[in-house]
Amino acid sequence: MKHKAAHGNYMKTLKKLINALILLAGLSILVSCKGETTFSKRINNQSDETITAVVYMVNGNIDSTLIGPKKIKEIYWDEKISSFVDASYSCLEEIDSISVTVTNNMILTKDIMDLNNWDRDSENGRNATESCEFFIGHWQVQDTTK
């Protein structure tokens, strides 16, 4: 008799454990279905000069980045869970302004705050990406002394 009661309690405990595992697996699937969007912005400096970009973000953060000749540097990166964007997303959306200086008395002739000067690449899906790049060619920096 004791054996049957012990077996019955064991089966009840096992059933509760299985139900808990099923519930946990279901919750894991639901949580893992939440998507995210990764946002990145970079400057592709293909000039022969070193560029300094001071980025003033809408949220008040300020970051200075030195970009050597023929180098690409990320000036912004963020990952937002359960955040997706549509076609109206702007490469300058999180940025208030950007100040650019160029070495050797040179100036950048391309407006970094003109949205049309940024290339945007979007990948949709559960883990979406929004990548933006500002390209600087050697012809887009000029000597200020000439």
Task: Explain what you see.
With 146 residues, this protein is an alpha+beta fold. It is 21% helix and 45% strand. The protein is built from one helix and nine strands, in the order H-E-E-E-E-E-E-E-E-E. The chain has a four-stranded mixed sheet with strand order 4-1-8-7, with no helix packed on it. It has a three-stranded antiparallel sheet with strand order 3-2-5, with no helix packed on it. The longest helix is centred in the first third of the chain and has 31 residues, at 2-32. The relative contact order is 0.21.
Quick overview of this protein structure:
By secondary structure, this protein is of the alpha+beta class.
Feature tags:
1 helix, 146 residues, 45% strand, alpha+beta, single chain, three-stranded antiparallel sheet
Cα gyration radius (Å) = 27 Å
- Number of alpha- plus pi-helical segments: 1
Oligomer: single chain
Mean pLDDT, all residues: 85
How can the largest sheet be summarized? 4 strands, mixed
Strand content: over 45%
The poorly predicted ranges are: 27-31
Q: In order across it, which strands form the biggest sheet? A: 4-1-8-7
Helical amount among residues, as a percent range? Answer: 10-25%
Q: H/E element string? A: HEEEEEEEEE
Say how many strands there are: 9
What is the molecular shape?
rod-shaped
Give the class from helix and strand content and strand pairing.
Answer: alpha+beta
SSE map:
Blueprint: H1 2-32, E1 36-46, E2 51-57, E3 62-67, E4 71-81, E5 95-102, E6 106-108, E7 118-123, E8 127-137, E9 141-143
Parallel strand pairs: 1-8
Antiparallel strand pairs: 1-4, 2-3, 2-5, 6-9, 7-8
